[in-house]
């Protein structure tokens, strides 16, 4: 197993699975201004400060003072390290105009100086920056080649971990073909400009006896030093959480079965300009900060301070969270870096800040060739998911039509998609939102109108009727109309009910009349009957009397 | 250049140990100096193995290196000094036409 000397450069040690080959020379090559010297200095400084391996910096170009001044901006105190005996800087000056070559020579002077420097501080690391400069100072290339070969052999023999820098040459990695001599590990640095955007990239061209990441990785040089940013494409095997996080908007939470989004999911909020994406995003952030989660907000169109000020109008106090350290804004113009670099920078910031929620506002601000953009976003989502970070993306681009360029193929990457839509009708604009998808949870399929006021964001049920979706004043009017209709209907039925009662009463009255007349008839009838009986009896009585009388008379 | 007020030459020769090349270099230098500078030079021979700090301070890269410290400008001549014309050029001395002075 090859032992490795860690460079302490964030990311590089991951890419090379441990660092540079220990006890061997490595070649770091690249064009002018691509960061070779810085890479080498960082290797030495980290060696001296983190791995207790003192180092020798043999500079063929810059003077020691210049070198120290140049890297001071990165926080490296070379003079301090020199004073502590952890670093030696030897500036080898080879000036052709001062040198006359008269006969055979070798580079024993260089060897002696290097050996002297190494021995004086018991160095374990060596940098030769840029040894090829010798070729411009001395004319006998054959001697130089054989001497350099001897030098690299000597470094190996002494077990020194060395970086030899080389300027990029035509058709080969270095001008003098140093890669032929330093064959254990070759790292290529690149500084490419595409569409006026510069991206620094690093590639491990070869690494004898070791596996290594073979991609081009972006790297960053800023006040935090040099960091290589391997954007490792995560496998789809990350742990998932079923914890639910609130959106900070009551009505919106209610639109999802569990009452919010799953922790660690990716959420897209899309809508054209002015639909309230940032405000809703800020509401998410506020809710997360209130829960005590750390939030990192990458903003591409506004500054953090501006967002803080603006969302105060909807009753959100983000400045408080910034002060407490829970919230950090990272504002950058999209054109400041290339896509790869944006992604890499985000990853670095995320790894440093360890947020629970990340907002990217708006993701559509990132520009680039479509396929590259899509790949970048895919890795961005992967990167966030693998860390279990809830990610909120806002996007400007979906205005009704879903052409592939428009939504960046984002929609399929997202776990949830809330779409904001301005409804323009009756001379007014109303904000509505609806959930297009929410993986793994039931969700409302209704369009909701939302209102932003100083009391916050409030969702109201939109009117959905035969006439379509009505919102805003139209909704209010419609609702009033409905109420009037209902009243009328109520009154109608009341009236009908009264009529029925009346009719029933009149029938009952008729029945009573009839019954009365029936009674009367019955009465009359019985009267008639009794009269008749009386008459009959009277008649029969009369007849009897007559008969009696007749018989008496007879 | 050659006549009035002859300046003294201060020379320092850096050699890498007692190698054949070092000897050859010293011989070449002595010959050139005795021919062209007679008594107006001071020569110091430094073994870079012995005096590493001085080698570093004097910006020695190649061995052997002859350093002309004075008169100014400072010049350095690398190699075993077998190319006399170049040595003289480096020292700022007139190159004599081939003749009696040429001892080869």
TrEMBL record, chain A:
Residues 525-554 are annotated as: Disordered. The keyword Cell division does not apply. One of its GO terms (molecular function) is kinase activity. Residues 470-524 form a coiled coil. Gene3D superfamilies: P-loop containing nucleotide triphosphate hydrolases. Keywords: Coiled coil, Hydrolase, Kinase, Phosphoprotein, Repeat, Transferase. InterPro entries: AAA+_ATPase, Circadian_clock_KaiC-rel, KaiC, KaiC-like_dom, KaiC_dom, KaiC_N, P-loop_NTPase. Its EC number is 2.7.11.1. Residues 3-242, 243-473 form the KaiC domain. It comes from the Bacteria. PROSITE patterns: KAIC (PS51146). NCBIfam families: PRK09302.1. This is non-specific serine/threonine protein kinase. It comes from Methylobacterium trifolii. The gene is kaiC_1.
From TrEMBL, chain B:
It comes from the Bacteria. InterPro entries: KaiB-like (IPR039022), KaiB_domain (IPR011649), Thioredoxin-like_sf (IPR036249). Residues 12-93 form the KaiB domain. PANTHER family: CIRCADIAN CLOCK PROTEIN KAIB2, KAIB-LIKE PROTEIN 1. This is Circadian clock protein KaiB.
């Amino acid at each position: 197993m090859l032992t490795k000397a860690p460079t302490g450069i964030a990311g590089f040690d991951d890419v090379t699975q441990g660092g540079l080959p220990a006890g061997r020379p490595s070649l770091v090559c690249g064009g002018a201004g691509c960061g070779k010297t810085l890479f080498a200095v960082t290797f030495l400084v980290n060696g001296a400060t983190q791995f207790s391996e003192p180092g020798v910096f043999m500079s063929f170009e810059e003077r020691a003072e210049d070198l120290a001044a140049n890297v001071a901006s990165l926080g490296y105190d070379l003079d301090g390290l020199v004073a502590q005996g952890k670093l030696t800087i030897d500036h080898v000056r080879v000036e052709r105009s001062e040198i006359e070559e008269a006969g055979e020579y070798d580079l024993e002077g260089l060897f002696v100086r290097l050996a002297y420097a190494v021995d004086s501080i018991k160095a374990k690391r060596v940098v030769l920056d840029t040894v090829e400069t010798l070729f411009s100072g001395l004319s006998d290339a054959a001697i130089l080649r054989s001497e350099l070969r001897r030098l690299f052999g000597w470094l190996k023999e002494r077990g020194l971990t060395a970086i030899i820098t080389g300027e990029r040459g035509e058709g080969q990695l270095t001008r003098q073909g140093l890669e032929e001599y330093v064959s254990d590990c070759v790292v290529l640095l690149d500084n490419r400009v595409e569409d006026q955007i510069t991206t620094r990239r690093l590639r491990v061209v070869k690494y004898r006896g070791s596996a290594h990441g073979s991609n081009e990785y972006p790297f960053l040089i800023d006040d935090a030093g040099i960091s290589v940013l391997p954007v490792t494409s995560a496998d789809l095997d990350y742990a998932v959480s079923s914890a639910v996080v609130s959106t900070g908007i009551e009505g919106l939470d209610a639109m999802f079965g569990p009452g919010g989004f799953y922790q660690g999911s990716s959420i897209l909020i899309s809508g054209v300009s002015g639909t309230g994406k940032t405000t809703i995003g800020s509401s998410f952030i506020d809710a997360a900060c209130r829960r005590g989660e750390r939030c990192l907000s990458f903003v591409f169109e506004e500054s953090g301070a501006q967002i803080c000020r603006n969302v105060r109008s909807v009753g959100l106090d983000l400045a408080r969270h910034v002060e407490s350290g829970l919230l950090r804004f990272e504002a950058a113009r999209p054109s400041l870096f290339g896509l790869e670099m944006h992604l890499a920078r985000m990853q670095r910031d995320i790894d440093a800040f360890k947020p629970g929620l990340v907002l990217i506002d708006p993701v559509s601000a990132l520009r680039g060739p479509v396929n590259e953009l899509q790949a970048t976003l895919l890795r961005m989502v992967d990167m966030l998911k693998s860390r279990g970070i809830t990610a909120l993306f806002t996007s400007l681009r979906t205005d009704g039509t879903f052409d592939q360029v428009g939504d960046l193929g984002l929609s399929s990457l997202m776990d949830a998609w809330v779409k904001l839509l301005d409804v323009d009708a009756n001379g007014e604009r109303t904000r509505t939102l609806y959930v297009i998808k929410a993986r793994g949870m039931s969700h409302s399929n209704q369009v909701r109108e939302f209102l932003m006021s100083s009391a916050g964001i409030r969702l109201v049920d939109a009117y959905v009727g035969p006439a379509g979706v009505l919102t805003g004043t139209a909704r209010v009017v419609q609702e009033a109309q409905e109420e009037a209709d209902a009243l009328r209907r109520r009154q109608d039925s009341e009236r009908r009910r009264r009529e029925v009662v009346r009719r029933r009463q009149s029938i009952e009255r008729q029945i009573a009349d009839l019954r009365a007349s029936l009674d009367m008839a019955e009465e009359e009838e019985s009267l008639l009957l009794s009269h008749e009986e009386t008459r009959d009896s009277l008649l029969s009585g009369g007849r009897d009397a007559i008969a009696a009388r007749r018989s008496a008379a007879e | 250049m050659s006549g009035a007020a002859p300046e003294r030459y201060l020379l320092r020769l850096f050699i890498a140990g007692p190698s054949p090349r070092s000897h050859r270099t010293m011989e070449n230098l002595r010959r050139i100096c005795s021919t062209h500078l007679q008594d107006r030079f001071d020569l110091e021979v430094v073994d870079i193995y012995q005096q590493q700090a001085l080698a570093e301070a004097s910006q020695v890269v190649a061995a052997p290196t002859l350093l002309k410290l004075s008169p100014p400008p400072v010049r350095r001549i690398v190699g075993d000094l077998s190319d006399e014309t170049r040595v003289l050029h480096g020292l700022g001395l007139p190159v004599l036409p081939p003749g009696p002075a040429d001892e080869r």
